Amino acid sequence: MNSAAPYTLLPNPRLCAALIATIWMLGACATPPPAPATAPSRVEIDGQVGFTITEDAEVDIEVNSDYEQAISDLEMGRLEQGIARLESVAAGTSGLSAPRIDLGIAYHRVGDLDAAEKNLLLALETNPEHPIAHNELGIIYRKTGRFAQARQSYEAALAIYPGFHFARRNLAVLCDIYLADLDCALANYQAYMKTVPDDDEATMWIADIENRLGR
Predict the structure, then answer these.
(1) Are residues 39 and 4 in the same domain?
(2) What pLDDT, on the 0 to 100 scale, is given for residue 92?
(3) Counting beta carbons within 10 angstroms of the beta carbon of residue 117, is it exposed (0 to 12), middle (13 to 18) or buried (19 or more)?
(4) Contact, 71 vs 82, CB < 8 A?
(5) Looking at the structure, do residues 93 and 136 belong to the same domain, yes or no?
(6) pLDDT attached to residue 170
(7) What strands lie across the sheet with 2-8, from one edge to the other?
(8) pTM for the structure as a whole
(9) CATH number of the domain that 64 lies in?
(10) I want to staple 150 with a disulfide (CB 3.0 to 4.6 A). Which of 26, 40, 68, 141 is the partner?
(11) Last residue of one domain, picked from the residues 105, 128, 151
């Protein structure tokens, strides 16, 4: 079963789990074959507005229902229920990265950074070219003081999709505040502003960095 999930970038530096998850359509099978260790996946760039990630697998329709209910739980703020459902879905779909990414984001929201990191790393084992997983992992690394690893994660996301402005902004902030690399910060803020030109806060940060650099 093949399906594509569009991910359209929005002018908000953080998204809820339901928005940034990679959604897949699951096929109804009476006795589905086991998901492969690594499901075939593709990242398709849609110009400067977003990207689409496709993962291929066949999964029982009941799993699809559980996944949809889990996302609904997260959207409604029922985080514990959503996490429990996603854990069940992830256990039965080892070849797909989407439920692991959702779990990473959900665990982050409840403050369990260890579980968030574990699930994002599992997602990247399945799909190492997933920009959302790299970006979310970068946030975890930054919050836990691993700034060099955070930079590597943001840069990995941007290497896959240079227009991913959430990762671009996160990298700029990291370089500015945590790494004191003003040239990196300025370059990434400027690249970010090409995608989100109406971010007044970023405009002020650029002016501040240029002043500190004497430009």
Answers:
(1) yes
(2) 84
(3) buried
(4) yes
(5) no
(6) 97
(7) 2-8, 50-56, 41-46
(8) 0.80
(9) 1.25.40.10
(10) 141
(11) 128
